[in-house]
Amino acid sequence: MTSCLFIFSTGDLLSQTLEQTVDGEEFRKLAKDMYENLAQPSSPPSSPLPPSSPPSSTSSPPLFRLPDNFTFDFSRTFNMVAFGMLGTSYLHVWWNRLEPLSKVLYPVARFGQTGHNILKVLTDQCIGAVGFMAIFFGVNGAAAGLSNNPSPDQPDPLSNKIERVVLGMTIQISTYLLPQMVNYHWRFWPFFHFWNFSRNTLHERAIWQNIANVFWSALLSAIAEDNKRDQLAAEAEKMSNIKE
What we know:
Blueprint: H1 2-20, H2 25-39, H3 74-105, H4 108-147, H5 158-199, H6 205-243
């Protein structure tokens, strides 16, 4: 659990740093290109300069420059750590059940080692991964429900807090679970876990999953920030056109 605490807290602080860098557009574009290439593995990776372009002689701006009002949202980091501990515990239990079950359902003698691993990954992604992501959105929804007190000046009984937590979890899971699984999760994790299940022991898999999750979360944060900036720029341009 100590490694889980370190990995998830470090990962969220890294994500927040990337989100708040004001000169990180080049990095975010690179991250977006990397993500899009996951969906098109045959496409060559994009390059910031054409092959024939000579290197620029002028000094480039720093890749990262933090804004003056840069702050960390430690409540968000706490939520990520809580999710990490719950999710990692869930993975340990699930994978300890999946391992003997897959030996019965997909015997190596019949399917071969590669076929056995593929079927085990498919089972994991259709059952275990859905539960793992449900925990993530459940934790986020619970935190949002607790903080969303419509009457902060009035007494807040426990029954109201429980109601807001349940409502927040329900909204988060029902709204985001399936789109996230289809648009993000299944683009990367089935391939990672094929390697994870093939090369690592049962007790090593969770820590490798958490390490990969740090970089995957940072990548998605960079993409989300890039999309948000594009949307704000488009809205600003639209408003300027209306004024004209």
